[in-house]
From TrEMBL:
<dbReference type="GO" id="GO:0003886">
    <property type="term" value="F:DNA (cytosine-5-)-methyltransferase activity"/>
</dbReference>
<keyword id="KW-0680">Restriction system</keyword>
<dbReference type="Pfam" id="PF00145">
    <property type="entry name" value="DNA_methylase"/>
</dbReference>
<keyword id="KW-0808">Transferase</keyword>
<dbReference type="GO" id="GO:0003677">
    <property type="term" value="F:DNA binding"/>
</dbReference>
<protein>
    <recommendedName>
        <fullName>Cytosine-specific methyltransferase</fullName>
        <ecNumber>2.1.1.37</ecNumber>
    </recommendedName>
</protein>
<dbReference type="GO" id="GO:0044027">
    <property type="term" value="P:negative regulation of gene expression via chromosomal CpG island methylation"/>
</dbReference>
<feature type="active site">
    <location>
        <position position="108"/>
    </location>
</feature>
<dbReference type="InterPro" id="IPR001525">
    <property type="entry name" value="C5_MeTfrase"/>
</dbReference>
<dbReference type="InterPro" id="IPR029063">
    <property type="entry name" value="SAM-dependent_MTases_sf"/>
</dbReference>
<dbReference type="GO" id="GO:0009307">
    <property type="term" value="P:DNA restriction-modification system"/>
</dbReference>
<keyword id="KW-0949">S-adenosyl-L-methionine</keyword>
<dbReference type="GO" id="GO:0032259">
    <property type="term" value="P:methylation"/>
</dbReference>
<comment type="similarity">
    <text>Belongs to the class I-like SAM-binding methyltransferase superfamily. C5-methyltransferase family.</text>
</comment>
<keyword id="KW-0489">Methyltransferase</keyword>
<dbReference type="InterPro" id="IPR018117">
    <property type="entry name" value="C5_DNA_meth_AS"/>
</dbReference>
<dbReference type="InterPro" id="IPR050390">
    <property type="entry name" value="C5-Methyltransferase"/>
</dbReference>
C-alpha cells in the first residue's frame, strides 16, 4: 500500500478518494476544530494538538500512541508544523522517513474568482508548505488541488500560477502538465453529480526521471461511456423532507438492484449509487457495516421562516432569487417580489437546482445558494454530501449552521470546502499506476545491477 501525507486535509474528501485508490495517510494536518473531528471520526485518525507536539519535540514517543498505525492528525497551522516534527512522527510512529506522495489543497479563497483576490494575500504562499514537506520526506509525487481562479490570479502584478510552476521546479519536482485544458478537471466528467471545476497539479520527484502520471480519461458526458449523473439521481432514496423535518438518525432503503435489473435506472447512476450506499468502495474497519448503509445521519432540513418558504416557492428550476424576481416583475407581479424578496437581489443566492442535470458548484455558502429541485427548502448536509459524492456512511461533525466567518466550520461549510470524492478517486487511481511504474523500473534496475 502506498503512503502519503495529507496537508490542508479538510473534512477528508481527498483522503476518501485516495483510500479508495489504495493509499494510506500517515500524517494529516488540519486547523479547523470541527473539521478535524470529522476527519478523525470517518478515518479513525488520532488527533494531536500541534502545541503538544512542539512542546515535546525530540521526545514524541512520550505522547504518540506507538501501539497502532493509525493516521496522526495534527490539529494546527501548517506553517508551524516544522520539518523536524514531520520526520520524528514518521520515524517513531511508522518507522519510516519517506512517503510516496504529499497531497493537499491549500485554502482557495485568495485564488477564487468569487473571492476578493487581493494582491499579496498571505494565503497565496501556503502551497510552499507542501513543497517544503515533500522535499523533507523525499516524496515521489506531489498532488496539488485548487480552484481554476489560480490560473489567472496575480499578486503584486505577478501571475501566481507561473510562480507555483517555478517553485515546483526549484524544489526538484517536474509537473506532468501545465496545459490549462489538461490540469483543469470537471467533476461531472468523472461521475460526480456536480459541474465543479478544479485544477490538479501532479509532479514527480526529479530523482525518478520523467513524470509517469497520465490524467484520467473523461468517463461521463455526451459521447462517453456514461451519461452525467444528475441532481435527481443523486438525491434518490433519501427520505423526503419539508422545511424543519428530519431526525439525526434515519433509516434508508435502496432499491437500485431491482430497478437496474428492470432497466428503470441507467448504468451511470447504478455505479454511482453502489459507491454511495457502501456496496462498493473503501469502508473503514471501525465503521460497522454489513453490505449497505441502513441508517444515515446529517439529513435534517433547515426550519426556514414562512417568508423564505414563500420566496422559494416562486423560484423555478435553474433560477436564483435575482432571475426569479426579474421574471415576476416582467409578469406584472411586483407585489410578490416586494413581499417575499429582499431589496438587494443576489444572482448566486437561492438557486433552485435543475433535476435533470448535474448541480452547479457546491461551495462553503451552499446553504444560502442551493435550493432543493422539488421542495421549497435548502439542501440538507446529507444532500450536499451526495452532490460531492461522499458515501452515505460519511458523517460531518459539529453544528448544522453557524455564522459563516466562524472558525468552527458547520456541516455545510465543511462539505462545501471538500474535494469531490469520485474525482479524487479517478486521479488517485492514475497516481497509483504511476507509482507502480516507478516500482517496476526500480526492480528492473536492481535486477540488471545483479
Amino acid at each position: 500500500m502506498y503512503t502519503y501525507i495529507d496537508l490542508f486535509a479538510g473534512p477528508g474528501g481527498l483522503c476518501t478518494g485516495f483510500k479508495n485508490a489504495g493509499f494510506k495517510p500517515l500524517i494529516a494536518v488540519e486547523m479547523s476544530d470541527n473539521t478535524v473531528k470529522t476527519y478523525a471520526r470517518n478515518h479513525d485518525a488520532e488527533i494531536y494538538k500541534l502545541e503538544d507536539l512542539i512542546e515535546n519535540k525530540g521526545t514524541l514517543e512520550l505522547i504518540l500512541n506507538l501501539k497502532n498505525e493509525k493516521t496522526v492528525l495534527i490539529h494546527g497551522d501548517i506553517r508551524l508544523v516544522d520539518n523536524e516534527i514531520i520526520l520524528e512522527v514518521l520515524n517513531k510512529k511508522f518507522n519510516v522517513s519517506k512517503v510516496d506522495v504529499v497531497a493537499g489543497g491549500p485554502p482557495c479563497e485568495s485564488f477564487s474568482l468569487a473571492g476578493k483576490r487581493l494582491d499579496g494575500d498571505e494565503r497565496d504562499n501556503l502551497f510552499e508548505n507542501m513543497l517544503r514537506i515533500a522535499h523533507t520526506v523525499e516524496s515521489k509525487y506531489v498532488f496539488f488541488e485548487n480552484v481554476p481562479g489560480l490560473l489567472t490570479k496575480k499578486s503584486n502584478d505577478i501571475n501566481i500560477f507561473n510562480v507555483i510552476i517555478d517553485e515546483f521546479n526549484n524544489h526538484g519536482y517536474k509537473l506532468a502538465s501545465t496545459d490549462k485544458n489538461t490540469i483543469k478537471c470537471l467533476a461531472a466528467d468523472y461521475g460526480v453529480p456536480q459541474n465543479r471545476e478544479r485544477v490538479f497539479l501532479v509532479a514527480i520527484n526529479e530523482k525518478y526521471g520523467e513524470n509517469k502520471f497520465i490524467y484520467p480519461e473523461k468517463t461521463h458526458g455526451d459521447g462517453r461511456k456514461f451519461p452525467y449523473v444528475t441532481v435527481g439521481e443523486a438525491l434518490k432514496y433519501l427520505p423526503k423532507l419539508n422545511k424543519g423535518e428530519g431526525e439525526e438518525f434515519q433509516k434508508i432503503k435502496y432499491s437500485y438492484e431491482e430497478e437496474y435489473k428492470n432497466k428503470e435506472i441507467n448504468e451511470s447512476f447504478y455505479e454511482y449509487i453502489k459507491f454511495i450506499s457502501g456496496k462498493e468502495g473503501y469502508i473503514p474497519e471501525h465503521i460497522k457495516h454489513d453490505g449497505i448503509v441502513k441508517v444515515i445521519e446529517n439529513h435534517k432540513a433547515v426550519n426556514h421562516r414562512e417568508k423564505m418558504v414563500n420566496r422559494l416557492s416562486y423560484i423555478e428550476q435553474g433560477e436564483g432569487m435575482k432571475k426569479a424576481a426579474e421574471r415576476l416583475i416582467n409578469d406584472g407581479k411586483q407585489d410578490i417580489v416586494t413581499m417575499y424578496f429582499p431589496k438587494k437581489l443576489y444572482a448566486a443566492r437561492n438557486r433552485r437546482l435543475r433535476e435533470n442535470e448535474p448541480s452547479f458548484t457546491v461551495t462553503s455558502h451552499c446553504l444560502d445558494e442551493m435550493v432543493h429541485p422539488i421542495n421549497d427548502r435548502g439542501l440538507t448536509p446529507r444532500e450536499t454530501a451526495r452532490l460531492q459524492s461522499f458515501p452515505d456512511w460519511y458523517v460531518f461533525e459539529g453544528e448544522y449552521v453557524k455564522f459563516h466567518s466562524d472558525p468552527l466550520q458547520d456541516k455545510y461549510e465543511q462539505c462545501g470546502d471538500a474535494i469531490p470524492v469520485l474525482l479524487v478517486k479517478s486521479l488517485a487511481n492514475k497516481l497509483r499506476i504511476a507509482l507502480d511504474n516507478i516500482e517496476k523500473e526500480t526492480l528492473n534496475e536492481v535486477a540488471i545491477t545483479k
